[in-house]
Amino acid sequence: NGFVTLPEGFATGRSFCEAVVRSVGVVLAPGDAFGVPDRFRIGFGLPTPELEEGLSRLDAFLETHA
Fold this sequence. Notes:
Elements: E1 2-5, H1 13-24, E2 29-30, E3 39-42, H2 48-65
């Protein structure tokens, strides 16, 4: 797992995670669930193909929203 700083334009990790799941179908954990509201968590427990697909979708989201 890794905690990542929010890109500009998002007030909280929760608002960022909600936008990501609505837009590209990737579920991330908002940092406020772990006491760090200005971050989000990426889990690395999936098999490699699924992890790569999720990271690719997250990258596409960031290209258009960050």
